From TrEMBL:
GO terms for biological process: methylation. It comes from the Bacteria. This is Class I SAM-dependent methyltransferase. Keywords: Methyltransferase, Transferase. Pfam families: Methyltransf_11. GO terms for molecular function: S-adenosylmethionine-dependent methyltransferase activity. Residues 32-129 form the Methyltransferase type domain. It comes from Enterocloster bolteae.
Length: 197
């Protein structure tokens, strides 16, 4: 087994951010990165937009790493970190233009509560994307290599895996009206819940 590291997933993040830019026309406003970990998505978003970034994670050490990486990058974005549980976000209603959450939903005790909170802090006209996967811009050979590395790692906790039906049920239980479930080619490659307000 190889030691788990976010480093072997690094090629995914710029491609995923490019997909978000193309899909949601991101440039300015407030963006939340829920379950940011070491800030990989936030770093890539900061490189290509003027968005104010709020990095949210339940792990304070991960937030310190993310903040340090963004500081070293020297970006001009306004950046803040928030050590909080997605199921109880200490943020005002209608705050964020865009919310991204990649890879953490499988660790949430009650996904419906996390999705409800994300919707609450999403601004009218905003969009949130919650799920797992590498995005549609990832070349298949790269995707296979990354997924094989993840499977061979010594990661001690594995997230729960959800089906298309699970994501749809979460959205209905959260009483969302404008959402869709997106499958990346097939469910084993990724599944996302896109929420609009």
């Amino acid at each position: 087994m190889i030691p788990f590291s976010y480093d072997f997933m690094q090629p995914m993040y710029p491609l995923l951010i490019q997909q978000f830019l193309d899909d949601y026309n991101l440039s300015a406003g407030v963006a939340l990165d829920i379950g940011t970990g070491p800030g990989n998505l936030a770093v890539e978003l900061a490189k290509v937009t003027a968005m104010d970034l709020i990095l949210v994670d339940i792990d304070g050490e991960a937030l310190r790493t993310a903040q340090s990486r963004l500081f070293e990058l020297g970006v001009d974005n306004r950046i803040s970190t928030l050590c909080a549980d997605v199921e109880k976000l200490p943020l005002r209603d209608n705050l964020a233009d865009f919310i991204m959450c990649r890879g953490s939903i499988g660790f949430w005790p009650v996904p419906v509560q996390g999705i409800t909170e994300i919707y609450r802090v999403l601004k009218p006209g905003g969009c949130a994307i919650v799920g797992v996967g590498a995005g549609r811009y990832m070349p298949e050979t790269m995707r296979r290599r990354i997924y094989e590395s993840m499977s061979a790692s010594d990661r001690t906790t594995s997230p729960r895996q959800y089906t298309l039906e699970d994501y749809d049920a979460f959205a209905r239980q959260a009483m969302l009206s404008d959402y869709r479930v997106i499958i990346e080619d097939d469910i084993s490659k990724g599944c996302w819940l896109e929420v609009k307000k």
